[in-house]
Every structure is written in structure tokens, then in C-alpha cells.
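User:
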Amino acid sequence: MSKRGKIIGVGGYSPKQLTNEDFVTVFGKPAKIVDRKLPHNKRYSLIDLSTGKIEMSNTDMAYKASMAAIDMAEIMANDIDMIIYSTLTPDFPVPPCYTILQELLGINECMGFDIRSGCAGFGTAMVVAQQCIATGIATRILVVRADLFSSRHSIFFEEGIENYPIKALYNLMFFGDAAGAIILESTENKNEGIFSSIMGSTKPDVPFGSILEIGGSRNPYPTTQIPKENWPLSQNGILTEEYLPQVLIESVEKFLIVNNMKITDFMHFVFPVASKSMGEKLFDHFTDLDIENVVTIGEDGGALANAAIPLSFEKGVKENKFKKGDKILVYAGENTRWQHAVIGLYWGI
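Assistant: Predicted structure:
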């Protein structure tokens, strides 16, 4: 029989929330301007607004989320034979984050790798984990997503609040810091686990919706060739609003066609939605999609890249939304180069 990966544990870590009002208190008028443009009023953040210092690392957050997932799964850390770690903001270019997490968890030996991606990263990691289980490479995989966006802003605090670039301030207030994890275990039960998935990048002719230009081999260090306001991250909001909903709708439609399914075949939808307009386009297209069945952390954490997916799973578990055998559709998509992943699974806990 074919093997599938079923979720046996979920966990998350979310730091303190900072509200828009907290930013207005520190930054004044510039934060008020950003406030009017944001789709949310709060976000999880590790940054100290009085100093710009960060309380912990990316892998510290991942450790807390992973331990919560391990505890829920009622296994030992050494029972894990692979770690797939997705992040846009690693502790270091090398060593990979998964090896640092392996040490923190006390795992003697395991396979693993990092996936360097934005909002599609966790979905991509789930798809790859499923393939590793299906081919027998691994039997129990820890899939982790962690991002620490606010650390990229500490440099601006050194130059004084009054000199903070407003575009950089927008990104600091837009993104959140958090980590989430799931554990996938091999099963041959056809009523459990991931039964189908797709992933890809379908708009190579469309420019970047967002880009992180500092830290790679082209620009390893901050440079005057790149505007300082773009050092943390540069986004194109117009392209994002136009193309990200298209990617969501087209990829979900493709998944349904490939599997000869309807949207109403699913009981729950783990769909992180970036904005109100994106949500409106989604529900206008899938008219049978009930908003009550969409499981999301909403506006609580800010834009969390794909930490939103495992945190949404964690929320669903805490609220007893999922029942064994429920069909769940998971979507992950990002605006860097319009990557996506769609996963269909049976809840197995």
C-alpha cells in the first residue's frame, strides 16, 4: 500500500503583540500614516520598540513550536528522522537552521534541509515531506516554519527614531514574528494523511511582488546602490493585489480539477488571506466556500509568511474544529515570484 504523511502533532510560538497604537506612541505621525494603510491593527513581534533589540532568535522560536508539536504527538525528539525547516529569515546563511534546531532538540542523528522561501514555504515543505514519506526516505518528519522579520529593522534604531524610513516602518508594522511546526508520520491508512498535493510557480513573466535584496551573494552587505528603506524588504503592493489572488484561485482550481473534486468536498480550509480585497476575490469566485469553514489566525499576528499555516492548525486543534477523517484543504502562496502549494489531507488525530 502507498504511504502517506499524517499530522500527529502541531505546535506554535507567538511572541508579544504590538498594536498600531504602540507604534504611534514611539514613532508619532509616520506610524499614523502607516496605520491607515495596514490591513491589521496588531502583530506578534520580538522587537523592543524602545531600543530596537530582539529578544530571541529564529531557531529559538522554532524550538518552542517544535517542542509543543512533539508533546502533542506524545513522542520523543529522537523519534524524528527528518527536519524540514522553512524560513525567509535564517539565523545564518550557513549552517542551515535545521542543524541548529536539531542541536536544541537533542536529536542525535537525523536528515534534513532548509527551504528558503516566503509565504509558500511551509506548504512546499509539507509537499516535500509527503514525498519523502511516500518513497520511504523518512517515517516521521518535523516540518517547521519560523520567521523573524523585525530583526532586520534593528539597524534603523541605531540612527534614531526620527530618521526611520517610512517604507521600512511600514514593513516593520506589516510583518509579524512567529514559528509553527507539525509532525508528519507515515501511515498506510487511506483515510488519514495527505492524499494529494500540487506546487509550482506559474507566472515567471510577472516581476517580483517582493524581494529581499540584502544578504545574498549579489549584495551580501548593505549598500548605497539599494535605497536604505528597502534593506529589510521591498514590496510592490499593486502587483501583489493584482496577482496574488489569481495565484490562489488558479492553483486551487487546478487542484480540484486534478482530483475531480469540488470545493464543498472539504470541511475546513487553512487559507492565510493577506488582505480584505484578496478575501473578497476568493469568496466571489468560490461562492460555495463558507467563511465559517476557513481556519485562520486572522489579523492577530500580522503578516506571518507561512507560520500562519501551522499556527492555524494549532488554533483549529485548540478550538476542537477538526475531527478524525475531516477533509482539509491547505493553501500556501507568496508574492516573491508567485509560488504556491495546495495540499489535501484527511485529519488523522
